[in-house]
Design brief:
The protein has 14 helices and 28 strands. By secondary structure, the protein is α/β, with parallel strands linked by helices. A 7-stranded parallel β-sheet has the order 7-6-5-17-14-13-12. Strands 19-28-27-22-23-24 form a 6-stranded antiparallel β-sheet, with no helix packed on it. A 5-stranded antiparallel β-sheet has the order 18-20-21-26-25. Helix 3 packs across helix 8, helix 9 packs across helix 10 and helix 11 packs parallel to helix 12.
Length: 579
Amino acid sequence: MGMTLMISLAVLPFAVLTVGAPETRFSVVQEGGRDWLANADGRRFHSLGVCCVNRGLAAQEWDDTNPGYSASRLFTTDAAWAKDSTRRLAEWGFNTVGAWSDHSLLRGNLYQTPVLHLGASGIPWKDMWDPSVIDDTYRIAREGVAPNRDDPRVIGYFSDNELGWWYGAMFEWAWKATPEHGTRDRLVALLREAYPGVWQTVTEDFDCEGATDFATLQRAGRLFLRPGGHGMAYVRKVMRLLAARYYELCRDAIRRADPGALFLGDRYISNFYPEVAEEAGKVADIVSTNLNANWSDGSFAPFYLEELHRRARKPLLVTEFYMCAMQNRSGNMNDASGFPTVSTQRERVEGLKRQLAAMFAKPYLVGAHWFQFYDEPMHGRSDGENYNMGLVDIVGRPYEPLLRAFASAEGRNPTTREPSNGSIPPIDPSLARDLGRWPRERARTDPSGEVRGDLYLSWHPSGLFVAIQFDEDRFAEAFYRSGTIPSEDRARLVLEIDGLKRPVEARLGLGGDLDLTEALKLTHEAGTRNCAVFRIPTRAFGRARFKAGDRIVYRATLDTRGRAYRTTWRGERTLGKNP
């Protein structure tokens, strides 16, 4: 089709700032206020890639009752498939073969970014200071790099995929280390430092199982969070320790296996933790994240990339993004999970354009990789996932409008957007329950602190509507001996507004239903992505009705689970009219 992606394939001079080890084939450069990748010839580009460019189902895996993409049914040889796929990707404007692909087969001019799966050695769960674990990590890196070791098109390697970094699970696992493990030694040393050697102060924040002092804890036992305490401050120190060691070990393993490659991070699972991102940024050349849309129109929470970059202080690479439609040629039902799904292919194209514009508006983004090359099998892959995520259907026919959107300037260039903290937009109360139907760009308020989410304000003559969307972690129940999240450790939002008789206080997230004062609950969804919408009626302000032009002065604070992080919002805004 002959389409080209101008922003990704531009050949431009570069200078100013270069990031990357001196001997790497590729580097990160800054010019014109943007981050770029640059190859050894000085050509700068953004990596527009595709994941899962592989042969799909092997001939012996074909199932007539659950058909899926299979190169063996479409091409006479693997080489013919590879030649055709490489040609088509280049014509469609892509320049990179992303993760889960047949990298060694896809020869040509496309860049490569393989995943090494260094976590197969057990890191970060095993003792990362153990020589045998270190040797195993180096071995996995050597074996993973070997097929591509001399390929000049390899930009770099991802150490892992969606490692998780779930605080509760990792904290529990860390205490399972035996006395001879370096991990336990370091945990106890860190505890002594955090609680200046006084065991009594430890018990104020922790329920200690199998240990009565530092010495016995050195040999056995573990810590549970004491509800209402401040033990999360120590948990964060533990996570920083483990993250620092993980990224250092991965960098060293990749550098030894292929000194010319960049370390591209470990592809976050659309969630990150400030300490982990900060340690990644100290070591990795690029910090990578998969990016699930928060709403079916393809848009994602604004705070996510902004805060990830602020913490990592390194360029970002989005390693998975996608849109799906019920209207598709593969028979995908798109019902195995909560991935963004729209009704038609036209809506899918609009969602893609929205995603590209939002991502490439970020000057620190050096690329984005679409997931994936082909649709998933009609009735789902082995884990049941059954989504219309492909550039092509299960018989290899391209979704032409989608591909035109990838190549068009309209799909890449950011649109003009009204900044947050302008006037508060009005909303129809019938739409207010669903944050996806809010005028979110105008309703959002600017956050500060350790940002874990976004706060939105809208209004109607009958009251002020408030929505909050924020991220937490899985497996938090592992922090507590009871195996449940106590009420006093649930996330807590406090919202003060001038004229309001008393602050709105909300306990939200996992651990129970939305618990509110001074407001009426509309919705509450709890999990790793939490969302709550509520209305503060005008009578709570001692008024009959709101009207356009009224002034709202607000202050809000979100303390996440166990008081781990605090995000704040404050400002003064007027109630606006419809645009």
